[in-house]
Amino acid sequence: MPATDLDLLVDAAKQAGDIACRYTGATARRWDKPDGTGPVTEADLAVNAMLEDKLQQARPDYGWLSEETEDTPDRMDRNRVFIIDPIDGTRSFAEGASTWAHSLAIAEAGEVIAAVIYLPQRQLLYSAAKGRGATCNGQPIRVSPVDDLSAAEVLAAKPSLVAQNWQNGTPPAFIRMHRPSLAYRLARVADGRFGAMLTLRPSWEWDIAAGALILQEAGGVITDRAGDRLRFNNAQPRLNGVVAGNPALHHEIITALAPAQTGPTGH
Length: 267
Known about the structure:
Blueprint: H1 5-20, E1 30-32, E2 39-41, H2 42-58, E3 63-66, E4 80-88, H3 90-94, E5 101-108, E6 111-119, E7 124-129, E8 134-136, E9 139-140, E10 153-155, E11 175-177, H4 182-190, E12 196-199, E13 203-204, H5 205-217, E14 221-223, E15 238-239, E16 242-245, H6 247-256
Parallel strand pairs: 3-4, 10-11, 10-12
Antiparallel strand pairs: 1-2, 4-5, 5-6, 6-7, 7-8, 8-9, 12-16, 13-15, 14-16
């Protein structure tokens, strides 16, 4: 990895924050995407346009995968690829809340090697490079030491707790919490505020890529819902759910989960 890749992402994330914060959230123009894939605002599009221009000019040989750019197969021929969510938590942004994030990552041969999650309205900038640890606002972070799931706070949406998702018909006991942005959830597990997180529905790579590296570099474990290693820059850029936490809690959750079934699962 070129030594300046992480610096490039950090600088781009800060510029993204400057652009997004010019909009007023609830009054920003908003549209619903086709096929019920969620909302998009003029802020998402403005941030995406800046990132696409800045990052691709800086690294023209890297591929590009972003929530707000039409996907093309060209990225599959690139060894390195940007994986970008201009604003993760668009609903939160549109409601005028502060729990939304810019999620920027670079993957090489399917593995994330540099990552930034930035919450400008909370003044939190998480970053990591492969093998160099993870930080929040420049300070090292580490996953929670809590190793008893019944005593842990876990970020999960209510549908994840329906009986069909668990081996014994009921979920294990833990304190359930929620945050609207998947990137932010992963960052808060990485910094030790929460012990683990899970989402059992198919998840877009751009929601997960940056947080995956930050969490791993903070000592955590992240897999899909079946316990399989995550790979990025797939032809179909969706993952089979995500389970993340410190090693002990991750193991407990994966062991307790039932095999995926056809039909609705949790968020």
